[in-house]
C-alpha cells in the first residue's frame, strides 16, 4: 500500500527568499544568486523529515528541489541511496561538494521538476520541501514513481502566509490542496501548523507562533 505523509507550515510573517523586483531574471538565475550568497550557510536538515523516517529501513530516496543538499545529505548519512535534483546548478555544485567533503554518496542532478524522469515504482521515499505548486502539478508522476509501501514527505508554506515567489506571484498550499492532489494514497499525517520554516535565519520561531495542528492519520 502506498503511503503519504506531509505537513504544511503556516508562516505568520513574510520570509524573503528572492528578489521579485527583477522580472528579467529567470527562476534559475534567482536561485543561483541565492545559493551563491548563502554559500557558507549552516542551515540544518528538516526536523519533520527526520522524525518521519526515524524508524524506516533505508532504501532509494528522491529529493525534489535539493538546493544545497541539506536534506539529501542527512538521508545519505542515515544509509539512504539518494538522488536529488534542482534547477540551480550552483546549488547542485554545492551539494556535490558537501557530499564529497562528508564522504557521502549522493547523485545530485541539474534538472527541472516538470522535465525530470520520475520513473515507475522507483523510490521508497520521495521528499518535496517547499516546492509547492511544483509538487501538486506533478502529483501523478510522483505517485507513479513510488514503490509499493513507499512514502512521500512534503512540507511547505500555507497560502495564507501571503508569500511572494521569485516571479512575484503569491504561492503556497491552500487548505486541503495536498489532500486532493494525493487522494489516491493513504494519508498517514496531515498538519497545518503555525511555524517558521526550518531554513529561515537562525531557525527562530515567532513570538506568537505557538503550534496549532490538525492531524489526519
Question: Helices and strands in order, then pairings?
Answer:
Blueprint lengths: L2 E8 L16 H11 L9 H7 L6 E5 L5 H8 L3 E6 L2 H14 L4 E4 L12 E7 L3 H4 L2 H7 E12 L5 E2 L5 E2 L5 H5 L4 E9 L23
Parallel strand pairs: 1-6, 1-9, 2-3, 2-5, 3-4, 5-6
Antiparallel strand pairs: 7-8
Helix pairs in contact: 1-4
Please explain how this structure is put together.
There is one protein chain. The protein is built from seven helices and nine strands. It is 26% helix and 25% strand. Strand 7 (163-164) and strand 8 form a beta hairpin. Helix 1 packs parallel to helix 4. The protein is α/β, with parallel strands linked by helices. A seven-stranded parallel sheet has the order 4-3-2-5-6-1-9. It has one domain: Vaccinia Virus protein VP39 (Rossmann fold), CATH 3.40.50.
- Major sheet summary line: 7 strands, parallel
Can you tell me the number of structural domains?
1
Strand order across the biggest sheet? 4-3-2-5-6-1-9
Instruction: Report the CATH C-level class.
Output: Alpha Beta
Strand proportion, as a percent range, falls in 25-35%
Which fold name fills CATH's third level, the topology?
Answer: Rossmann fold
Q: What's the end-to-end separation, in Å?
A: 14 Å
* Computed Rg: 16 Å
